[in-house]
Specification:
Four copies of one chain form a homotetramer.
Chain A: H1 2-11, H2 13-18, E1 21-26, E2 29-35, H3 49-65, E3 73-83, E4 91-101, E5 105-116, E6 119-133
Antiparallel strand pairs in A: 1-2, 2-4, 3-6, 4-5, 5-6
């Protein structure tokens, strides 16, 4: 399972473009870390909501993926985020957790924590639905 | 208004990092374009949902911004997206539109269209709440 | 199709308990009407958000149902609503529309309009995912 | 605080119409109970999603209300629900909890548990934004 997720994450080139790293894979829970980068900001210098959403979506997606059968792949069906505070910090951690795993749909919750020195705060809260798909076999 | 939005967009460095361009600003409606870039993909080679969400969030945010008073700035409160189809195409357009502008909260709807040759299809649907804030004055 | 939806609506006893009526069924679009009733209010005398959500959820669900195969039934997977204005009016109309119909998942948008004399305004905006299920056969 | 919330709940006539009872008010957390009632069902005999949403919206709203200043009232800005399982059970409990309380906006999470004998399961997950408003004084 872990290898399958690390392989898939490595093929998510958007994660590399953002500088995100897969830092923990547990059964039903995945963490993705990201350092602050001024190239990822919105107009006030905070991390852009699309960036924190991207790492949280991947964390939730891979958390769901830990519950799916080996032959399947995962896609996001939908997600909703609340932005609780400006994404200010030295580094950020997205945590995705499975809430309920159905046969095809997996419901997850995610959050993004911002770390500044010894302090951390939650800046984003996500509720997301992921779906198992059967990839078309390549010849 | 147009200048204010172009200035703010230019300060959203995340948009430049993704290669996104502000292509239309109308009263209550903003468009942001993005060319396909393999560096922005998820594991299946489609644009990552975080990327299409990022440009749609900015389009909705700036659409809301057209309804806000000159001294204010805009932040995203929350958004929800449905991913309607894989983000496959040569180029993408996010369109954000104001549905209701209150004194502080502005509700918007957004979509992302994927273009392939002459064809286009909607790949993402967003419903988002934006808020006017008063930036702290710099000394 | 119309008969199938009218039959199903008649079995949604919650709709009768709220006083809601199925008033239009078109391919991919369904309308449900509700008169103001003081028993359905929240603490300020407006219709409770749960009530406007309930009729909009049913309208979106049945709009999705028009796209599903005869042997299936419909359930709500998830929905998100923005409450645009207090639900004040003499009568209310929920309209659900299909945005994209997949094999099992159908994405819909809905709204609730409040009517007061000649005037109407949109008080609720919904984005919802519906799913086709195969009911267990009864013996 | 408790009295203020019990008074407000008593004025939410929709809660009485559904048969819902306010069963716990703590700082930042509110519970609302509801017994199964065949009049509140959808076409398959489960509780209608609008009904479980209604009690969860009220639970989240009043949880937010515990964090608001005495002179204010609370309204729902938006919410998103995932329906995790059919709402089957003898009784149901909605629990709303404050995640972050801002000056005007309060973000909450809610869930609805279904009880059948000794067993309980989560059937609905909510993420909601509540707003403090200043009611217009009556003369």
């Amino acid at each position: 399972m872990f290898e399958r997720i690390h392989d898939s994450f490595a093929r998510q080139l958007a994660m590399a473009h953002l500088g995100a790293r897969l830092t923990a894979v547990r059964d039903g829970e995945v963490e993705i870390d990201l350092d602050y980068d001024p190239r990822l900001t919105q107009q006030q210098g905070f991390l852009h909501a699309g960036v924190t959403t991207a790492i949280c979506d991947s964390a939730c997606g891979y958390a769901a993926f830990t519950k799916m059968s080996p032959g399947s792949d995962v896609v996001s069906v939908e997600f909703k985020v609340n932005l609780l505070a400006p994404a200010v910090g030295e580094r950020f951690r997205a945590i995705g957790r499975v809430v309920r795993a159905g046969a095809r749909l997996v419901v997850t919750q995610g959050e993004v924590l911002a770390y500044q020195g010894e302090q951390s705060k939650c800046v984003l809260l996500m509720q997301a639905t992921m779906m198992a798909i059967t990839p078309r076999p390549s010849l």
